Amino acid sequence: MSSKQFFNEVAGEWDAMRANFYSEQVREKAFDRAGVRAGQLAADLGAGTGFVTEGLLRRGLRVVAIDQSEAMLAEMKTKFAAVSGRLDCRKGEAAELPLADQAVEHVFANMYLHHVDDPARAVAEMTRVLKPGGRLTITDVFEHPFEFLKTEHHDRWLGFRREALEEWLRAAGLSEVCVDDLGEECRVRSAAGGETALMNIFVASGRK
Ligand SMILES: C[S@@+](CC[C@H](N)C(=O)[O-])C[C@H]1O[C@@H](n2cnc3c(N)ncnc32)[C@H](O)[C@@H]1O
């Protein structure tokens, strides 16, 4: 099964699954780090059913939500039908985002980078769509040893090292590059056995 098939299958359950994995503080801390303001335009990449999108809409931003999974996007469209004037849902792939150059003031990507084939290329693509002065804010997990996440959750990478993240953001042309521990955890229990993965979440940010 591909990652796309996996997310199409779990779309209806994703909100409940996500609530067990990490808290809403993840997105709130990311927004504070990015300095979001009402009226700005943000992209939510690997948007899923709209965890980050929901928070951005609440803070008064306009959002382009992008995901490879039609089923995840369908869930999101139903959930946010009332604010559809500020939300644009697009099907798209990490390596070739369906956005013009310099289109948005913010890019957010929560728990997305560890699913993409080529993280360095994905970061360069995120940077392409940012306006000059725009901010990239990635939240994901630091490197960890929990192999079961590859088979049970279709993770492509077992998290990331700080040095690799800094290198990818700098290589993409971002300044003010900073990778910090967000002070939040991601907790996933294996369906196969008793193992529980407990992972520290980072926030990686930079300015174009
Ligand atoms: C772990 S979920 C996170 C969803 C959401 N950001 C959240 O925090 O709830 C990862 C999402 O990234 C999407 N995704 C994975 N690989 C992708 C790719 N190469 N291009 C676009 N979307 C991708 C999946 O379909 C899924 O919805």
Q: What is the average per-residue confidence, as pLDDT, rounded to a whole number?
A: 96
Q: Structural class, judged by helices and strands?
A: alpha/beta
Q: Major sheet: size, sense and barrel closure?
A: 7 strands, mixed
Report the bound ligands by name, code or SMILES. Answer: S-adenosylmethionine
What Rg is obtained from the alpha carbons, in whole angstroms? 16 Å
Order of helices and strands: HHHEHEHEEHEHHEE
Strand residue content: 25-35%
Structure explained in plain terms:
This protein has eight helices and seven strands. Helix 6 crosses helix 8. The longest helix is centred in the N-terminal third of the chain and has 10 residues. Strands 3-2-1-4-5-7-6 form a seven-stranded mixed sheet. 34% of the residues lie in helices and 30% in strands. The chain is an alpha/beta fold and 208 residues long. S-adenosylmethionine (SAM) binds next to helix 1 and helix 4.
